[in-house]
Amino acid sequence: MPRVFLTRCESYEPRAVRAGVEAAFDAFDAARHLRPGTRVLVKPNMLSAMPPERAVTTHPAVVEAVLRLLADCGAAVCVGDSPGIGSCRRVAERAGIAEVVERFGAKLIEFDQSVEVATPGDSLFRRIEVARAAVEAEAIINLPKFKTHGQMVLTMAVKNLFGCVVGPRKAQWHVAAGRDREAFARLLLELARLLAPRLNLVDGVTGMDGNGPSAGRVRPVNVLLAGEDALAVDRVAARLAGLAEDSFPLVCAARKSASFAPSLGPVEIIGAPAEGLQLKDFVLPANVDAQFGPRVLRRFLKRAVAARPRVNRRACRQCGVCVKHCPPEAMRLAKGRVQIDHALCISCFCCQEMCPQQAISIRRGMLARLVIRRSAP
User: Fold this and answer.
1) Minimal CA–CA distance to 109: which of 94, 95, 100, 98?
2) In this predicted structure, what is the pLDDT of residue 306?
3) How far apart are CA 207 and CA 192, in angstroms?
4) Which end of the chain is more exposed for a tag (fewer CB within 10 A), N or C?
């Protein structure tokens, strides 16, 4: 039975964060076998160059508490990511992480070299290209942020490891999965199984709901979660957020393979009880999957039900970031505005994730909006 540690943490006051992180490490004896010189990779969420108060990136107080523990072990620590926008250095500096890394003598690294790694025999994908630093690390400490996500509904421990896929290869995987959200979720699961972090520790002191992972509402979540099983951690986080497992793409994809069965069974909660940490008003993203019904009707259903990216013309500055990062090349700048070819759109919502002006939101299809309006109390 997988175990997930929970503790209430209501601020980024250093002593409070340090106490929570130390308790999480102790609960799983996460520092075991970390002798002097052990190569450890710390993987925060460094999506884009945003200050800590925006809740887009892992808070530097959490990174600091982890690096302090690793320094006590004498580990050789690297902190790295492959951000969606900008270099790792620039994002880390803006997020307040670079200063912490330098203070503790760790090394900040850009994921710019890939290594092909063979996957287990029951995998859908025979080989996955992963950052060399992640493959060569003797232990990985995964530090995701508690946020919503347009395509995966939530981005926590499993999704954060997609940052170990280097730069342009991310877009290629999105195109390969196409509109099959479950196939992309399976890729994320197999990547998490391949990397097998020593510990997954979710920064949920403040989080993001609604139009996440970069343009949602910053809100208190008041929790740190941790566990060795990334999917189990995400399932508990989903429970706190009020997301039913049948609506969680990672869980739906995991159910298709017996190899993920241990992560889908009962979870032992240690530390604080989950009941006291549940979020009553957590807003989930507008995400409806239209891959159902007779094939002849799917095009209509996609238009009428599925969520689509929508550009706020007033907020948009025509910077072209969304166009550059659109995996299927469904976006273009023309006549002074961003135009979207919805026939090509695969609903990966990378455009919404990357937009520096937060000018792209996810809008439900007309039929879905009508159903939701009619069913509202």
Assistant:
1) 98
2) 61
3) 22
4) C
